[in-house]
Amino acid sequence: MRRTVSIFPELSGEEKASIIETRKQYARAFNMSVECLINNSSTSKRFLHKVQYERIKEECPSLPTGLIQCARDVAVEAVKTWNVKKTKLKQKKPKKAERMKRPSMKEKCTMRYDVRTVTLRGSQLTFSTCERRIKTIISIPEFFTERYPDSEGWKLKGANIGMDRKGRVFVNLIYECPDPVIEENKDGKIVGLDRGVYNIVTTSDGTHYGAKDVRRVKRKYNHVRSVLQEKGTRSAKRRLKSISGCEKRFVHDQNHCISKKLANTDEDVSIYVLEDLSSMNMKRLRGKSNKTMRKWLSNWSYSDLEEKLTYKCKRNGIRVEFVDARYTSQKCSVCKTIDKASRKGNRYTCRHCGSRMHADTNAAINIRDNYITRIQQSGQAAVNQPYGWGATGKPETEPVGKTLTSKPSGLS
Ligand SMILES: [Zn+2]
């Protein structure tokens, strides 16, 4: 587990200047390392050190060795992720992959420090720069030391040091602690979650999360954005940029609140089931929504919500699982008939058996039942007494004719 705390130390003008110079040289060291790694198609720290260390030392004469090593480690990581991305893109769009920008760092970068280059003794923080080690007294907020005490194994692992837009130096101290073993709750129930347009999340029990307030704020942002886009002046563009930041923070904050509520639920839950949006996202959007709905959905970061929910649930012994998202919004959760016409707006009225409910709740129940069907079919032990099998009392089967089970003759 990792936690970060931001601190703004008070520094003199001279100290700030030396941080600015250090940043410049740090970025240069990073960029040189990246060039070297990509040109030699390597991701080895040792190789990089052998080939490039002397040259970096020449180019960045006053950068301490410890920081060259930090820049090198960050470069190796950046090239590794870049390689993975490029290989993935190559399979789909080879031309685009060739044009992919190499990782680079600007002069106004944030530097990563490790335990050798930053130390904290009591309240005295010291860290290396081009000129000398800067010593400063800091105070870590009480809530942080209370929540993450040394006695529980929290240790300083490093820091990110940089400057914000106002020119203040910030130090993000990174603390780490070995993951505690949390026993999974095995006797709770399985709850399906549908992520939608009107409500950010709906559970299969029929509870909605993030509805009223979110809709109001999103509508406001959408309106302001469209007005500003029409104007198109320079100040309008500046304003657009700043509201995009506000909007992003709003979304992240809401995601935090919703995932926290779900993870700390009073009910006895052992598994949350979500639809796997990664592959189906655009297809599903195209199918079920008009332009305005797409706008709503694309403005919400569901992957961020997914990530937050997963780590918060893990802490509470709840597992998060993903299932195929096909037909979950069109299928009736009672009789399992798939009929597109049964859904009108946010109401689902089955044309086959006549059951009515909120469309998102209906989808959430389908998601839960899809998961239960999957574990039944794969022969895993069901976690709890499954319910909601539908009218037939048997696990439903996947719709026929949609998947290709064998190769058609004539193809090789
Ligand atoms: Zn029905």
Q: Tell me the number of strands.
A: 15
Please count the helical segments: 11
Shape call: elongated
Helix content: 40-55%
What number of structural domains do the residues give? 2
What integer is the average pLDDT? 82
Bound molecules: zinc ion
Encode the helix/strand succession as letters.
EHHHHEEEEHEEEEEHHEHHHEEEEH
Biggest pleated sheet = 5 strands, mixed
User: Which spans have pLDDT < 50 for at least 5 consecutive residues?
Assistant: 382-412
Rounded to the nearest angstrom, the radius of gyration is 26 Å
Q: What quaternary form is this? A: single chain
Q: What class do helices, strands and sheet pairing give?
A: alpha+beta
**Strand proportion:** 15-25%
- The N- to C-terminal Cα distance equals 50 Å
Adjacency order of strands in the biggest sheet? 10-9-8-11-12
Structure description:
By secondary structure, the chain is α+β, with helices and mostly antiparallel strands. It folds into two domains: 2-176, no CATH class; 189-377, no CATH class. It has helices at residues 13-39, 45-59, 65-92, 94-98, 142-147, 212-231, 234-263, 277-288, 291-298, 302-315, 359-377, and strands at residues 2-7, 111-114, 118-121, 124-127, 134-137, 155-163, 169-176, 189-195, 201-203, 208-209, 269-275, 319-323, 343-344, 347-349, 356-358. The strands form four sheets. The chain has a five-stranded mixed beta sheet, sandwiched between helices. Strands 1-7-6-2 form a four-stranded antiparallel beta sheet. It has a three-stranded antiparallel beta sheet with strand order 3-4-5, with no helix packed on it. A hairpin with a 6-residue loop joins strand 14 and strand 15 (356-358). The radius of gyration is 26 Å and the shape is elongated. The structure holds zinc ion. Residues 332, 334-335, 337, 350, 352-353, 355 line the site of zinc ion.
